[in-house]
Every structure is written in structure tokens, then in C-alpha cells.
Amino acid sequence: MSNLVDRLMAAMTLEEKLGQLNMIDAGQPPYEREELHRQIRAGRVGSLLNTYGMEDVDAQQRMAVEESRLRIPLLFGYDVLHGHRTIFPLPIAEACAFDPDLWERTARASVEEAGRDGLTLTFAPMLDVCRDPRWGRIAEGPGEDAHVAARYAESKVRGFQGSDLAARETMAATAKHFVAYGAPAGGRDYGSADISERQLAETYMPPFEAAVRAGVAAIMPSFNDLAGVPMTANGALLNGWARNRWGFKGVMVSDYTAIVELIAHGIAADIAEAAAQALNAGVDISMQDQAFVLGIPDALRRGLVEMETIDRAVRRVLELKARLGLFDDPRRRLAAPPLTQKEKSGLSALAREAARRSAVLLKNERNVLPLARDTKRIAVIGPLGDDPLQMFGCWFAAAGFESATIVQGLRAALPGTEVRHVAGTHIYEPGESGIAEAVEAARGAELVILALGETKEMTGEAQGRGHLDLPGSQRALAEAVLALGRPTVAVICAGRPLTLPWLFERADAALATWFLGSEAGHGIADILTGSHNPGGKLCVTWPYDVAQIPIFHSQRPTGRPANPDVYFCNRHVDLPIPPQFPFGHGLSYTRYAVRGLSATPDEFGPDQTLQVEAEIANEGERAGEETVFLFLRDPVAEVGRPVMELKAFAKVALQPGERGKVRFALAPSDLDYLGRDLKPRRDAGGFEILVGPSADRTRLASVKVRMRADG
Ligand code: BGC
User: Fold this and answer.
1) N or C: which end of the chain has fewer CB atoms below 10 A?
2) pLDDT tens across 412-438, in order?
3) pTM
């Protein structure tokens, strides 16, 4: 294989080399179709994005491997984020399932469809930890916690890449966006992230490190700057951390036109300088701006880059193509037999399973849920009740237009029940003329489902919001319906937590469904009707008010902790101290209790593994699956450690009345932290281990352990 790469390297002209570093969006300017094809034949384009489907991929791949001088195959990249043709829940939703096995299975299932469409590189997983739901892209990532994001990273990389990238059922994964993209000032996308080195190392780096350890094939630097240095040119982190410290051997692909944007960032005067800085920092492929093709020849003449650096990048791209088996058979994935009806049904079943396991039951009073199966009339009120396009979320272009809506799901699940839908108002355009009809429909129903939220377009890239309430006239609609006093369930469709304290106060039940994908409505109906006992838990702290942001469970302690009875303390005087719902919150139709927490040995040496065990009892009447969290509290260290730090989570499935054990093994490294010099420390002394259903301190069992100095 490397013989082949060596041979190609020796044969390539500079223009052909730069062609390998050039990724072009097939559907966009600057190239018309004919011109793009000319460029491919001339070897001036090495990969495409946003082209998929047998016909186009095959035709363009043939141009590369049959008509270009060196016959080097193209890479086909695409944002397969949460499904390809079958759409799975948004990442923020799927993270709430807290199930690494599910995360892996949905990634693998996406490849089944994406590979048959000729795609070889996905721009996923998105690993940006985010503690500010104003940022629209919180929807695309696994939430607020570094440990969860790291587990998510490994699962997704395994799911996309399998164990051998050359196998047909694989595609190369891209860990993005490296790094701290989820921390832009004010939640405004693309903005500067000015965070401490400690925060960077403790919170934002771990998921990327986990992806690299899992063998991720590519990394995408983020659009943002970090304290003034745009990530696309941040050699200290791209080459320094990812390649040198972690040993990343793969390809770095810039974000869309990010290299030329270095000029607007104010660190390059022209495209040659921009291209040189990105290449020297470790970027191998320029996405869409042709920065390397256009800028590097000049940069070479001006002595801004070395030929050796160009060669290293080209070699990495060729090696990725070789690892994907593209030189052996560029049509391998395309030639897979079409999915059988049974396989397609399997994908739908998985999408439905993922949907019902990702929704989070936030509130359930007066036993309103699960709804009584003999309910005769249900009114679904709200603009998100029956809109098939809205259920998809951010990335769904290959999916067509049909997803299962809430109304469809309920009608299918309850054939004997009349399910009436009245939108009542538009999602975001103000207008109250439909409210009277909605109220009438609600009045005639035994149960009302308020289907409210934001549009899928309000989540994702460039969708920072300053207010996290319901857009348009939805609040007026909801209040008019709630005034009837009917049993009412709020179903909230959104890519982020919305601050709706009035709704959580007045609705009998509330279900956060995020955007659940192709099978959304069926998954939601499974929960509403009780054929599935909900088990989703929040992967983000749900604020009560935008002004509480940033709010997350692993805050650092203060000398004057928040306390409603204390004058001089860490709080806003005009806001509640706790969030609306803590990290890990999520109800079910049964009750669980955690008992008998133990940690052995209670005194241990610095090389010894700690065994933590607890009993979980299902004390209700329904079978269910509980997620149990293990947090660590290190009360004395060189630097203040978070009030609680998530170290592990586990799921236990229990029949009614059943008791089960949950066991965690804590390695000594799990107790490590970064000292004042940002170097790892393992301190002797006491630790507290907290185990329970969420980050609500009052619901956690705790046990103290002590690490000896000697071992
Ligand atoms: C986004 C990336 C995405 C790329 C290609 C960019 O605008 O930031 O997440 O992978 O476009 O679609």
C-alpha cells in the first residue's frame, strides 16, 4: 500500500498534489458542472462534498479513476450526522439515551445507507461540549459533559469506521469541530472562544482525545478562534496536541471556506498567507475555498511553506484513500446489493427505538401519562403536531420529506381513538386567528397534547437565539388551551432546552422530544401510550431563564455557595438558584430506588482499582430501564475541583419489583486531575462518590473513600 503511495508521490506534479488537497462542494459555485468535471479529469480536485447517489458518484469517480492521469480515486464527503436516508434523533437527543451501544448502532446503520450512496467520509461525529443553549449547534452535539461526549465519540467512531476501514460497511469519520467551538461568546455562532487553558483541557479536549484513541480517520478544525488564534491556523493545537501529543495519524480537513476566512479573522493578508498558515498548522484538505490550489504556489515562491509540508499532507490524503480500499476498488460501497425490504424495516425499527429512548419525560402529574387506552378523543394542538418536515432536525437532505408526525403516530397507535389536530398558529409568525378553533377542539377532547417548539431551521448552524422561549404566538395559543383545565401534555420539539417555566408549571406533563427523526411520531406515541416506558435523561442542564446561562452540573465550588437564606452568596437575587431541570433528569412510569452504595476497598493505594456497587430497585408497576450516574467529588486538591464530576454512567433494566446491581470500576486515573501547572496529579486523601439518578444532589447516595499516599 505505501509502495503505491510512494509511487504516486514520485509521479505527481505540484498541481496534482494540490489537487489532492482540494475538496469541492459539487453543488455550489465556483464550478459549473462541466467545469468541475474538467477539474476532476485534470487531477485538480481530490475530493467532493455534497454529492451522493449511485449515478453522480459513479460518473465522477470514473472520471477520476479512468480519465485522470494518475487515476487517483476521489473521496466523497457528506454530513451524515444523525442518519442518511433514515434519520435518527438529533445528537443532543440521542445523547439523552445514555446508551453507547445505541450510539454505535445508529452510526453503523447510517453507513448502510450512506455507503450505498457512494459516500466514504462523514463529517461526524460532532463533539462540541456546549453549556450555552443559545448556541444553535448545541443540537448537533452530545451535550454539556466531557465524559459523556468522550463515550459518545468512541461509540460513533466505532459505528462509522468498524474495525477495518477497507470493509464495505464503513466510512471514515471526522471528529469535529476541533476545538471549543461550543463556547462562543454569547452563543453567537462562529464567535471567539476565550476560555482558560484549564477549561480547554478539562472540558473541550477529552472527546477529541477519545475519538483519536478510537482511531478516528479525520479531524475538522473549527471556525472559531481561541483567544485570538483561529483554529484553522492553530498549529499548537492541530499539530501540537492532536498529532504530537495524542498521535493522531489521519487527515485534517478544514471547515467550509475556513482557510480563506483567516483573512477576515485578521491573521493573514492574502490567500497565500492564509493557505500557508493552515497547511503549516496541520490542515491537509481545504474545503470549498480552493485555498491550497490557489494560494500554495505563491506561498511556495514566497518561502511561506516547504515542499516537505505539502508532501506530508498529500501523503496523508492518499493513505486515507488507500485505507478506505479505494485504490483496490473505488466502487466497492456503491456495488453493495440494494437494501432488502427486511433491512429497510430494520432501519426504521432502529430509528423508532432510538426516538423513544431519546425523548425525556420532564414532568408527569395527576397520572396523565401514559394516556388511558380507552381515551375516545384526543386533541393535538400546535404547529408541530403534524408537520412531517419539522421532525427531522438539522441534517436530513437525503431523507426525502416524510417523517412520522405526532398525529400520525397517535393515530397508528390508537386506531379506536379520534385524534384531531389543529395547528392554531404558525411556529414563528405571529397570528392568533386560529386560536379560537384550537380552543374549541381542546374543549371537546378528554386529553390535550400541546405540540410546541421551534423550527428545525432555528437549530443548527448560524442559529444562535437570544431568547429561548416559544417563537410566534405559541404562548398565547398554549395559555388559551391551558385555561380550559383539560388534562394537558406539552410535547416540546426543539434542538435545545427552551425556557418555559410557565408551561412546566401549568401543563400536567411535559415531554422533551427534541427532533427525533424519521420515526419521531411513532417513538413519541410509544411513550404517550405507555407501550414504552420512558428512560431518557437530560444530557444538558435545562435552565429556568436565559440569564442563568452558563448553567451546568460540574460548576466549581465557591467560598460562598448559593443559598437562598444567605445574603452574601453566589447567586442572582432575581432568579431561582436551581435550574428548571438538572442534568440527568428524566422521569419514567415507574419508581426506582438506589440503596446499599458501597466502594471497596474504602482505603486504597494509588494503583488500585475501586469497585463501586449499588442496588437499584424497581418499586413501581412497570418494567423499565434506569440510567445511574456516578459522580466524584474531590474536596481538597491543588485547584478547586468541580462540585460534582461525572465519571461513569450505567443502565439497568428491571421488571416491576425487581432489584438489580450496578457496578462501576474506577481506575486510579479516574481520580486524576490537572494541577496548577496543568500537569496530571494523583493526590492521596479523601474522595466522595455520589451515585444516583441525576445531578440533583439531594437524590444522590454517597460514600467516602480514601487514597493512601504509598500504595
Ligand atoms: C459546518 C460543518 C460541515 C460543513 C460541510 C460547515 O458549514 O460547520 O459542520 O461539516 O459545513 O457541510
Assistant:
1) C
2) 999 999 999 999 999 999 999 999 999
3) 0.98
